[in-house]
Specification:
About 65% of the residues lie in helices and about 0% in strands. The chain has six helices and no strands.
C-alpha cells in the first residue's frame, strides 16, 4: 500500500502539473501500474453496473463508460507530467512525448526510453 500512496497519490497530489524535474523508473512504472489497475476496475464497473443502469447501447459503451472518461480526463495532465519527468530523468527532452503520435513505432520508442536507467 505504501507504493500506492507514495507513487500514485503522491504524484497526483504533489506533482499534478509539475513538468520540471525527474521521475525515477519506479515512480513512473508504479504510477502506470496503479493507473492501469484503476482503469480496468472502472471499466468493469462501467460495463456491468453503470452502463446497464444508464441504458447505454453496446456500441457506445464500447468507447468507454462514464467513470472511465472522468478518470482519464482527470489524470491526463499528471500522466503527461510523469512521462515527461521520466524522459528528463534519462536525459531526453519532454518533447519526445510527441513521438507517440507516430503509429506503433512511436509507442515502441517511448517504451524503450521509459525502461532505461536514470542518468
Amino acid at each position: 500500500m505504501e507504493p500506492f500512496k507514495q507513487y500514485f497519490l503522491g504524484t497526483i497530489k504533489k506533482k499534478y502539473a509539475d513538468f520540471d524535474g525527474r521521475a525515477t523508473r519506479s515512480e513512473f512504472w508504479y504510477y502506470t501500474l496503479f493507473y492501469a489497475v484503476i482503469a480496468i476496475a472502472l471499466a468493469t464497473i462501467d460495463q456491468y453496473v453503470l452502463n446497464p443502469i444508464l441504458g447505454m447501447p453496446v456500441n457506445i459503451a464500447a468507447n468507454g463508460g462514464l467513470l472511465q472518461i472522468i478518470f482519464a480526463l482527470a489524470l491526463v495532465i499528471p500522466s503527461l507530467a510523469v512521462g515527461i519527468r521520466r524522459l528528463h530523468d534519462i536525459g531526453k527532452s519532454g518533447w519526445w512525448t510527441l513521438v507517440a503520435l507516430v503509429p506503433l513505432l512511436g509507442i515502441i520508442v517511448l517504451l524503450y526510453f521509459y525502461v532505461q536507467k536514470s542518468q
